[in-house]
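Researcher: Let's run the pair from yesterday's discussion. Sequence first, then tokens, for each.
Model: Starting with the first of the pair.
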Amino acid sequence: MAGRSEAPEAALRLLGLAARAGAIVPGTERVREAARSGRLRLVVIAADASANAKEKLLPLLEKRGVGYIVAANRDALGVAVGRAPLSAVGVSDAGFARRLKALMEAESERST
């Protein structure tokens, strides 16, 4: 499930809240590890992530049945969770994942 390339501010704020709650996994390699261990509910992938990062992530996420959204850019994802630019951020909490997905879908519907 891929989403829009622009994340609404509300979704980025929610991602920051999830980070403060300890419900995220930052960075491509940590996301891959968490996906393998079954700890992720949703992954946000930066629209400007490298082809290499996407090639490492997408097949694994699809194989493991982890939903993902392509949103924002590396800088915005990093800022949202209080880190340097990130290509991917995993969400481990089901509640945060549901709300984030709903925000992104609502934004997508408004823009179509």
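Model: Moving on to the second of the pair.
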Amino acid sequence: MPLKGLFSRKGEKAAEEEMVEVNVMDTDEKSVGKLGIRIAKLEEFSDADKVIRQLREGAIVFLKIKGLRDKDMGELKRAVEKLKKAVAANNGDIAGVEQDWLILTPEYAAVHRQ
């Protein structure tokens, strides 16, 4: 009976024994493969330094500027100019969304405008 060995499951069992299940959550870093997106508020001119630090760490920042815009438009303009310079120095991108938000991206991301 030469066909008897053709339909045996010995080959499947050997293949199952060679496979090893890997759990992705076993890695030390929980942020492996994740994109950092942060939401921040610009209430004072000094908050721009915190945003720049987050941007240099590689996070995309959604920045709410309404608080500073309502307080002092001159301070807002200074802060936005400082942010523009920092983004340009890091080869990133900056874009305004409506009147209350800015999006700042590091070098690896870009804002597509329509």
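Researcher: Give me one sentence on the second I can quote.
Model: The two ends are 71 Å apart (CA to CA).
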